[in-house]
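Quick illustration for those who missed Monday's session on complexes.
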Amino acid sequence: MPKLASQIAPQRSTQYAQLASQLAAPELQLSPLGSHIQHVEPTPLGGQEYLLLDLDQPLDDALLHELGTLAMTSAHFEFFDRLGDVEGPLLRPLTPSFQPTLPPDIVTARRYKGKTNEMLTQFMLNIARHSSAFAHRPWDTLRLYDPLAGGGTTLFTGLMLGMEVAGSDEDRQAIDGTAQFLQQYGKEQRIGINVRTESLKNIGKRWWIDIKQGGTVQRCLLSRADVGDGAQALHGFKKPHLIVTDLPYGIQHNGELISLLKNALPVWEGLLDEGGALAFSWDATRFPREDMIAQVETISGLRVLDEAPYNTLTHQVDRVIKRRDVIVALRNESPN
Ligand SMILES: C[S@@+](CC[C@H](N)C(=O)[O-])C[C@H]1O[C@@H](n2cnc3c(N)ncnc32)[C@H](O)[C@@H]1O
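Prediction with S-adenosylmethionine bound:
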């Protein structure tokens, strides 16, 4: 049986190291590799944390490609207990063929208060895509919407992977700052950026930003809008395949979060392409998973995925956010 050793992405802080080691196995299980994994075992190798995976087949090119997009594992090796007379463990490095469309530092370059962890963001994009009807479509054919976009971590991760992206947020400064950063980043990296702004009734100024590399153009639309105005915010942008977002933290009463969900979920459901997926994270310390699932399924027709490993994604962030959780919900394809 072929064995794969996947190195859990090394982190400087204990907090992020825990995040990576907790979510690495679910991410692999929910990836296209998942159906080939017979067994997963955490194993230290050379003082580093690895997952040892028993596979039912050797990796083909498509699976090898996917390994390059994973967030929680950073290097992958064929694993041998021994080779001929040579006692193991022995590792043969694998080179995933996936190449990011934009340099990964587009996601990490900016630091600001309230930024969503970059690894968690890429993890949510991965599990949303793999759970959707578009699991086998290349990233550069997919569209993403983040309706609580803040400083744009989700959007930049989507762009890095090759997607077309749209984001909105009620905070005008966050939206304008994101647009300005993208222009500045393009200048520094000598990437062609075309910007067009327009003004819409109710919403005000919107930014259409085209990122040009070689013969390809990636589009990023940014609007200031309340979650309830998502349809206006996205006017002129084709239906997103994925909606990925990080709900606001520091909310004192569950009622506030429920009212945000009541405004947002019907809009998100209407915007998602058929077969599309919604993934979001939230502070589950005082708003447990069962309650969130009940809210999503009462307010919208979206179907929450809650079988293992979807129900194992809860993790501690810090002393205040003792539990953060992630939900993936699907907009079903119509039967005909
Ligand atoms: C956790 S932050 C998202 C951070 C973002 N992922 C990043 O890394 O910058 C949540 C965002 O929700 C926005 N927000 C809160 N309530 C909103 C509402 N009703 N409509 C639109 N945006 C809202 C806040 O302005 C904040 O930027």
